Amino acid sequence: MPFFTSIYSDLLELILPRYCSACSIVLQTTEKHICVFCLYDLPLTRFEFYKDNPLHRLFWGRVMLQQATALLYFKRCGKARKIIHQLKYKGQSALAYQMGFMLGLTIKNSPVFEVPDLIIPVPSGASKTRSRGYNQCTHIANGLADATNSHVREDLLKTGKSKSTQTRKGRYARYLNVKDGFILGPWGNQDSSVLLVDDVVTTGATLESCARTLQEGGFSRISIAALAWTS
Ligand SMILES: [Zn+2]
Q1: For residue range 27-71, what is the model confidence (pLDDT) as tens digits?
Q2: Could you give the residue range(s) of every CATH 3.40.50.2020 domain in the chain?
Q3: How much distance in Å is there from the Cα of 2 to the middle of ligand 1?
Q4: From the CA of 20, how far away is ligand 1's center (Å)?
Q5: What would the mean pLDDT of 200-222 be, rounded to a whole number?
Q6: What's the 115 CA to ligand 1 centre distance in angstroms?
Q7: Domain over 43-229 is classified CATH 3.40.50.2020
Q8: CA of residue 19 to ligand 1 center, whole Å
């Protein structure tokens, strides 16, 4: 970095300090969104190293998936929870992109995970999108696509009808709530392998419903990837 650019960056950091999204300490000039200590301390699942991982098993008997992976374990008081909160409720789209890029690198370097042809972000409910102004899954998908040289198709899967909030609902109630809640947009080659992208998997009801919609549209090679899994 040129000398004057470095001084300018240092002054900017002094006036407008940036904070780590996981531990809230002030970031150094070279750090982006997450400090180096938190990056080394992230609760990685390493699910990309084996096919029959616990997340994949969550969908057994529910919907046929080729592969499933999540980057982080989501704990009630952990770093993953803080990161997800920032990108989900604080509108930190650049953080969502960075985390998506990290997830994409794990898939790209996986010995078992196939790099998909198309990446589909889980659509946000229409009312949620309006209130937050953006869909965090789209930014995660964009980072993932850049890491794997894949394409994002945001128009392929859309919310078919408005949904009530899923908070405090059990797995079956959530399934009924989102069942048939998605519709397929115009699609081309159904032989394409597709990867559904979500931020956090809890019961898997939303991803299950999305995958079913794609299957009913003729897609057979469907995988899922999420930033975090609530084990
Ligand atoms: Zn940190």
Answers
A1: 988 888 999 999 999 999 999 999 999 999 999 999 999 999 999
A2: 43-229
A3: 27
A4: 5
A5: 92
A6: 30
A7: yes
A8: 8
